[in-house]
């Protein structure tokens, strides 16, 4: 992509990379950024793409400090435009959650407001040891606009989420790890390699198997346990017949790494 693009999209083997590329604006989110993320997912998920995992990362000091407020100011005078701005952000983040590919975030510096909402929509999160996350909407008379009010309580619990909303305070990487907001904390100079190594490992797995586990886990969250268990039972009965399972069982018997083709 050109240097003027707000997002750089590329590949490292079977790992698709989406890199926020507005370091001068702390990688703030705009319609064009969300559009580039959606287009990248379309590209990576296309049949024959060879991509098996997605890494979202950012250039510069901070992962993402929220929405592009200059764009918000311009759009506020047109109610239909601001509604589209909010709705499209929702669509793209939900698209990440529903992607059949694992979506991993690598976060450094700050993830604030809309930046935290982007992170919350990912499946697995790596954070640098200097990382901080917060929701500052209340400080400016705003409310979360891209799913934060729903995703954050589901991850950290109601009381912790409300505290973060009300206080607008930032929490550090060790606290984010203890609360389940991030999965791994590494030194800043190890973030790029650690997150890519993890995605490369995911890319060696069965694409069908990972997609099925992601779908079952996410869809089961909002269902009674007995419905989720039934959904799993139906799915595994189908999955046991696919070619990836045949390859996995053959590899186990031969004591070799499986080579999945799907």
UniProtKB/TrEMBL annotation:
Q: Which UniProt keywords apply?
A: Isomerase
Q: Which Pfam families match?
A: ECH_1
Kindly give the Gene3D superfamilies that the UniProt entry links to this protein.
2-enoyl-CoA Hydratase, Chain A, domain 1 (3.90.226.10)
- Which Gene Ontology MF annotations are present? isomerase activity
**One GO biological process term:** fatty acid beta-oxidation
User: Keyword Isomerase, does the record have it?
Assistant: yes
- Check the record and name the CDD domains matching this protein: crotonase-like
Does the keyword Isomerase feature in the UniProt annotation? yes
Q: Looking at the record's lineage, which domain of life comes first?
A: Bacteria
Under the heading PANTHER family, the entry gives: ENOYL-COA HYDRATASE, MITOCHONDRIAL, ENOYL-COA HYDRATASE-RELATED
Please identify the protein, giving its name as recorded: Enoyl-CoA hydratase/isomerase family protein
Q: From what organism does this protein derive?
A: Piscinibacter koreensis
């Amino acid at each position: 992509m050109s240097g003027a693009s707000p997002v750089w999209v590329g590949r490292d083997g079977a790992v698709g990379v989406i890199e926020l590329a507005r370091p001068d604006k702390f990688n703030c989110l705009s319609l064009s950024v969300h559009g580039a993320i959606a287009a990248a997912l379309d590209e990576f998920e296309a049949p024959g793409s060879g991509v098996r995992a997605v890494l979202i990362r950012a250039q510069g000091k901070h992962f993402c400090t929220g929405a592009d407020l200059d764009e918000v100011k311009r759009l506020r005078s047109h109610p239909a435009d601001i509604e589209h701005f909010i709705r499209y952000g929702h669509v793209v983040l939900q698209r990440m959650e529903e992607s059949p590919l694992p979506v991993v975030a690598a976060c450094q510096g700050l993830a604030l407001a809309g930046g935290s909402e982007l992170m919350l929509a990912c499946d697995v999160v790596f954070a640098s040891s200097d990382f901080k996350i917060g929701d500052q909407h209340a400080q400016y008379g705003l409310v979360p606009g891209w799913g934060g009010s729903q995703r954050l309580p589901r991850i950290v619990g109601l009381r912790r989420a409300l505290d973060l909303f009300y206080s607008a305070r930032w929490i550090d990487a060790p606290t984010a790890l203890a609360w389940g907001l991030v999965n791994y904390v590494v030194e800043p100079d190890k973030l790029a390699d650690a997150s890519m190594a993890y995605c490369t490992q995911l890319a060696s797995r069965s694409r069908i198997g990972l997609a099925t586990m992601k779908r079952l886990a996410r869809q089961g969250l909002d269902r009674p346990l007995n419905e989720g268990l039934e959904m799993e039972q139906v799915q595994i009965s189908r999955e046991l017949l696919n070619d990836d399972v045949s390859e996995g069982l053959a590899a186990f018997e031969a004591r070799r790494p499986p080579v999945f083709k799907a």
